[in-house]
Request: fold
Amino acid sequence: MSEAASLTIKELVQKLTGDYYEGLCNAHENGKLVAWCSSVAPQEFMEAMDIEVAYPENHAAAIAAKGGALELLDHADKQGFNNDICAYARISLAYADLMNSPIQDLPRPDFVTCTTNICNTLIKWYENLARTFNVPFILIDTPFNVEETVSQNSIDYIKAQFVEFIHQLEIICKRPFNYEKFDKVMEISNESSKEWMRAMSYAAYKPSPLDGFNILNYMALAVCIRGRQESVDFFHAVSDEMERLLDANESQFKGEQNYRYMWEGIAVWPYLSHNYKTLKNQNAIFVGSVYPYSWNIQYEHGNMDEMARAYSEVPPNRCLSEQIKLRTSIMKDYKCDGALYHMNRSCKLLDMMQQGLRSRVYENTSAPYIVFDGDQADPRSFAKAQFETRVQALIENMEAEKNGIEVKN
Reply:
């Protein structure tokens, strides 16, 4: 039996995360280049060139989750960055200035790259990173999809940038692009996306064998190693574990599953434990989320048009009608009794859509919801008491719905 096969899922997450950071931090010593890259960028190109990739958003989330955000946010304030800017960006920019964190350090980048399919804040954020380190900045612009489908003009525009990305990587790496490895990485990345979605789909069972908060633990691997065989093997192992739990009528969630909810928006990383315990104490289980879909990047293997389309149609880059469809399907497919909407101070793009989004999803499902204020990484923008009160209101409304009492949000 291999070492990995003898580990629990939790131990395997820790091992793969540790292996990833060890490879990243030893990259320069091992003669490899390092890129700092946005979380939903085409890692296939960099993986093909044996470039180690760091993800500042993931790094900022880890720092926030482990209680290390305030020191860096205070430093960002002193640098002159307004607190209306995304907290991930402020943590990252402060870290780039200090290059020191009590949580986890990153090696200096040889270049930075981002894709605008999450938000346009990334452009100025990564421009500042490039200026700080005096390294090249490669931008892959993915126009926002104002229609329900990705236009051919957008596909052609993005694909042309992929071609230029390859050219820039050849210049930076000082060697020809490895098309043979690129082909293999595309194959692995697609398989990884399929296995990721399969593993997360077990939350649709009632009762669910998957504790939805574990999606947040597994997601780091979907971000960081999606182009490596280890990710395929890991997500397959999660599915195997879910099958075992189903057969045994067991669950990762150690409590009664009286209420099932969709969590809308990014996690409140500094208060993750508090959020989890508050909901668990009410016998409420997290089963639905848009989170997993951002790394469901599947395309016809070898087809650059399809690859461009896949990176363009990730959830944050879709129009309001598509956002509503996705969340409505999650509410129905995952049998959600209600929803929590995180009004996230950092994430302006989705917050600006949220009022229309949640009212339409409610019209489509009749499932009650609550809205709470917070921030994905800045602990100063969240109040425990407000969250607890809102959760109690949601529980009461979900219970009323189960008892046939009409609830109007």
